[in-house]
Design brief:
Strand content: 25-35%
Largest sheet: 10 strands, mixed
Shape: globular
Helix content: 10-25%
Oligomer: single chain
Number of helices: 10
CATH topology of the largest domain: TIM Barrel
Strand order of the largest sheet: 21-20-24-18-17-16-1-19-23-22
Distance between the termini: 30 Å
Length: about 500
């Protein structure tokens, strides 16, 4: 009865034309990022083979199993800022012979280098994902980068491939993506774009394709936020040498890096400010797309958003340089809104990497000793899995300011994902499908919401917020009616392959 009353008023109509396909949604949009930062790699992923925490070849079994359920397509490593101080040869060979290093970017902690190149590729093997390596330009040499690529990917007789074999891995690995430097405008060297463009041209020359069947996708360091001067300068001077260029954008509720706001216990205004700051991603992308279209009208160069997500003050009592923060329903909204933006720009965006996968910033997973919890953001990624490699559909109709959607054609029918970040107002929607008038498809709905706007999971209460079945759906003559609750993320599978 309540549902009927909802449908009687304020109905919004969206039309899905089966012939209006935008193109394939790259699975790499759902990429992850693991930096040597705080407890992301050490403790979050790597516990070592001798740990009492269940592990497979040193990788936490619980974390791996959870990440496999969201179909991680690609993992970026070793940084971030850490990448431009990382010297890869310190992290190979027997553990006894590996050099200890000080992580100057993130707290000055000492690392034993037990997680290095071999361990990273073992992690990728366990996850079934592609490797995105970020090379050291800031403090590294051309020779160092060249040798690393050779070590990882060459199957020939050479000093580096022989060294890899001596260290226990006979066959080369595949490196799908390679980033030449990170944030070269900041922690990666404080460079001018003109200088970096020349450095990029030089360094990328020696990122050799040792396997012609698996060429390396080369990524240049792009701008932060809407820095159009950096983007234009680098693309103008080095565009023909790159396959992609990066973009970084973080959402802060305050807009102030010196006082970023709390991850929990925030005001309604901060709820909206954070999500609206995340939504600026759309405006930023359009600005950079316009520049790329001038120099690359064929859209050969991909835009790679390899750092994005929410950034708040760290949790009280934790190391301020470890960037450990809670993850609430608000962050689920940030994730859903951002992923929807990416899927509206699939002609240019081919990969994105949320920051970061475990225990840092907007994480999928939090750990504490042998305990592990999944965050609201994790569940958004899980709910959106079937968008990966599906066909994005262009739709006709306008949604209210606080609602976004994405419609894709899957192998089984259609997937609709919706985000309503209005704290109080529900909404009634009708999706019209031009090619399903005579069908009675199977409907499967999932909702992520919470009673409190800062609802979150912790180690005492790990299931406060998790997906539930969503039944406020009705199908009639090719029309799907939805009563969309306030502050919710919803996915609906319209299964026509019965």
């Amino acid at each position: 009865m309540i549902y009927k009353k909802l449908l009687e008023k304020n109905m919004i109509e969206i039309f899905v034309d089966s012939h209006r396909e935008l193109g394939k949604i790259s699975k790499y949009i759902y990429g992850q990022f693991a930096e040597h930062l705080g407890r992301c790699v050490y403790d979050g992923i790597w516990v070592g083979r001798d740990s009492d925490i269940p592990n497979v070849n040193g990788m936490r079994a619980d974390v791996i199993e959870a990440l496999k359920l969201i179909n991680v397509p690609v993992l970026r490593w070793p940084g971030g800022c850490f990448a431009d101080e990382y010297h890869w040869q310190d992290g190979i060979g027997t553990y006894d012979n590996r050099k200890k290093i000080v992580n100057n970017n993130w707290g000055g902690v000492t690392e034993n280098n037990h997680f290095g190149t071999h361990e990273f590729f073992e992690l990728c093997r366990q996850l079934g994902c592609e490797a995105y390596i970020n090379g050291n330009v800031g403090s590294g040499t051309v020779e160092e980068m060249q040798n690393w690529v050779e070590y990882m990917t060459s199957d020939g007789i050479s000093p580096m491939s022989d060294l890899r074999r001596e260290n226990g891995h006979a066959e080369p690995w595949q490196v799908k993506f390679f980033g030449v430097g990170n944030e070269s405008w900041g922690c990666g060297g404080n460079m001018r774009p003109e200088y970096y463009a020349d450095l990029y041209r030089r360094y990328q020359t020696y990122v050799r394709n040792y396997n012609v069947d698996h060429p390396i996708f080369k990524i240049a360091c792009g701008p932060s936020d809407d820095d159009s001067y950096w983007m234009e300068t680098v693309v103008k001077n080095a565009g023909r040498f790159m396959d992609g260029i990066s973009l970084h954008h973080y959402a802060l509720p305050t807009g102030n890096w010196k006082s970023k706001g709390n991850a929990t216990s925030f005001s309604e205004q901060e709820w909206y400010d954070e999500i609206n700051h995340a939504k600026e991603m759309g405006t930023i992308i359009k600005k950079h797309e316009a520049i790329l279209d001038c120099y690359d009208p064929e859209k050969r160069i991909s835009l790679i958003v390899d750092e994005w997500g929410s950034w708040y003050e760290v949790e009280k009592g934790t190391n301020p340089d470890f960037l450990y923060q809670q993850n609430t329903l608000r962050d689920a909204m940030v994730a859903a809104e951002t992923l929807h933006i990416f899927q509206k720009h699939i002609k240019r965006i081919k990969m994105a990497n949320i920051a970061q996968v475990v225990n840092v910033l907007q994480s999928m997973i939090l750990t504490e000793g042998d305990k592990m919890i999944k965050t609201p953001t994790y569940y958004v990624f899980k709910m959106f899995v079937d968008h990966q490699e599906a066909l994005a559909m262009d739709t006709v109709g306008s949604l209210p300011e606080h609602i976004s959607d994405s419609v894709s054609k899957t192998k089984n029918g259609y997937l609709i994902s919706l985000c309503n970040y209005d704290l109080n107002q529900s909404q009634n929607l009708i999706y019209h499908f031009n090619n399903l008038n005579s069908l009675e498809p199977e409907l499967r709905g999932t909702i992520l919401t919470a009673n409190q706007m800062d609802g979150h999971n912790d180690f005492e209460n790990p299931d406060v917020i998790k997906p539930e079945n969503f039944t406020q759906l009705k199908w009639e003559n090719g029309q799907l009616s939805i009563a969309l609750p306030a502050k919710s993320v919803v996915t609906i599978h319209v299964n026509t392959a019965m």
